[in-house]
Design the sequence.
């Protein structure tokens, strides 16, 4: 029996990135279902699970992607709720790569500092998809985690409360608009992470030069300029300032890629429900 | 040459159910074309038939699905009208499974009563897609066929006239809102069929207990509650009341599945135009 | 590694014609991306090129089709601009078959007259996609090229200026509404081409009978009536009037088909960017 992947996306296109990886990982067929709405999921799921017999469920799987992370989670829940033994299939969610990227980012930085427990971590752009999942993973590892928005303090704190509630963790919120304010936030931090949009520099090389404590910076944006001055996409713990080592976006991206391959391959072996937690477990062994 | 299926749907998604069955039946590639409009069909058909040479037409086929049964029929007609020898390909229509489901339902109940000719059949929810095709198939077998709506008598009779005209048959229309009215309608009936929406019970186990003549009940809805009290989805001519035997939705669904596989496999062998009649011929041998 | 084709279309469906040819030419998987907007192309391209490693770029390719020729060109440009060594993949554009059709048409007529340089060519319907690309190819071969619209002279001349500018060529514009006016335009012409919509006859057999100079007529419309009276779709330099030989739409269509196969096969061998120029080079060897 051939392996069929049903690729559900909240967007109008099924990401070619995930399509390529799924097919290369061993799916024989990948079928795009775009602009998926929550109310369509039960019907789609029943169609998937009831059409190949109980044995066929090992050869069918669901991927859920797209840029609407909340809708992705609703789709995953609906799909899961629509299944029952033995009519269950694997589900893997990774909204616009945010789960695998956050997992790779946190696993890599965690390895770099010898474990995240008790470490002070500041995540710039932490209210976006990658940032909030990274914050949740850091906090679950008992790191002292702060997300930073470029808006005002209230927005940062509200986001922290919301993220803490969604993921069952405890993170802090802050705001910073200037390099000076950002520099103040990373005093005594062990790790500074940038998950901001392309085109924004969080700290210049000059500002990083003034850092006095050992700091690791990591960026997930591969398009110049880097979120941290002097950091190149391929850098892997490169010394970029007297006290600062950097991890670039391609270094993290390569781990993210391996994690995604690993999960798609696992779906072909066993029935799994994979999300950011699964991705993080995988990333810790692959980083 | 690989076998290509062009999956045309009136809906925004190509049913994963039909996709799985088509691919498992032997199509190498299945390509989704969604939200298909009637005026697009000639262009799509010409594209399909003219791009692989006359020999290629044996390896290309069209499936037409989706919940808009009338549009499905228009698409089938347009596609057929756009072909000419030797540039013809197989076409299989099955709007939301209604044709194969109705075929399985009628073939199974027909077998249970030793042939439908002269039998009295009452179809609750007979104005929906499955119900009306089932009614047409019953009437073609010379059964005394009545469709029943939950609206008023006029609506039931008008639907019966319309269905009789569309399929060239002669069926009667009725209405029933209460269990008592429904019970009255099945007096002296040989078969009572439920093709209503999930969640509606046509007759309770208590009401079925009052039936005095031998009656077979059949339901196409697998989601509890059953259309007939005491009927389980997997039941195959199970005694559920002193005079009543029941056929459940999974029993019918399994025949429907085999019919659909049979037709997709036939499309790979010969050029066919398959609709509810083809499905019924197949179902009679598979039920 | 399997060969993946990402089929980007400006329309709501990915042409089954191009799908069939791409798959028959050797692509293992062809994935449809429909209603593609210019601003989505960078993201799609990055997804395509970054997900299989540098080696994978030899096994991924982009096809751009659809009826909006201008948008097709914008998509091609954006996709190309989003790539850099070694992360580049093949791109083949053929908006609704216009490039391969125009290439086949011009190569075939050019061969028929022993080279287009210095020849007088009149293209009826020359403002449409096939017509304007054919005009550009003729002019690049130093033919004296005139496009003819059925609207007024101003419209024809403006179109000629626009096309000359877009393709860097020099063509003339004219208008003709009656058979008499069209007959006047082809006096002393070597080639008359019809790229008009189905249902329009440019010159009747009677009018062609009055032609005194040797003339070749060619038509790309296979649906009767032919653009030239007496011309059948399969005609290959058939004498249809004392001074007139004709090339029919199927004759041109067969070359177009071979050109498209040739380009898809080339994409599997080498990284290429194929458009109407590539198609014309291929057509000259295949016509």
Sequence:
């Amino acid at each position: 029996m051939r392996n069929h992947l049903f690729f559900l996306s909240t967007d109008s296109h099924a990401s070619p990135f995930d399509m390529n990886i799924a097919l290369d990982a061993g799916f024989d067929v990948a079928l795009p279902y775009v602009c998926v709405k929550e109310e369509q999921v039960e019907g789609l799921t029943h169609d998937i699970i009831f059409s190949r017999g109980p044995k066929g469920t090992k050869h069918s799987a669901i991927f859920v992607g797209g840029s609407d992370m909340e809708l992705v989670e609703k789709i995953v829940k609906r799909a899961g709720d629509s299944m029952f033994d033995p009519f269950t299939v694997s589900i893997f969610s990774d909204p616009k790569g945010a789960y695998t990227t956050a997992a790779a980012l946190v696993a890599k930085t965690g390895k770099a500092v010898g474990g995240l427990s008790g470490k002070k971590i500041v995540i710039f752009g932490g209210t976006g998809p990658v940032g909030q999942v990274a914050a949740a993973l850091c906090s679950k590892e008992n790191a002292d985690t702060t997300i930073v928005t470029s808006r005002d303090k209230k927005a940062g704190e509200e986001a922290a409360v919301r993220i803490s509630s969604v993921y069952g963790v405890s993170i802090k919120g802050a705001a910073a608009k200037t390099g000076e304010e950002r520099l103040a936030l990373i005093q005594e931090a062990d790790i500074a992470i940038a998950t901001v949009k392309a085109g924004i520099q969080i700290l210049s090389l000059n500002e990083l030069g003034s850092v006095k404590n050992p700091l690791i910076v990591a960026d997930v944006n591969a398009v110049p300029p880097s979120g941290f001055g002097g950091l190149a996409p391929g850098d892997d713990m490169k010394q970029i300032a007297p006290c600062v080592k950097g991890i670039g976006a391609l270094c993290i991206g390569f781990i993210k890629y391996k994690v995604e391959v690993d999960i798609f391959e696992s779906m072909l072996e066993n029935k799994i429900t994979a999300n950011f937690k699964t991705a993080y477990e995988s990333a810790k062994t692959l980083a």
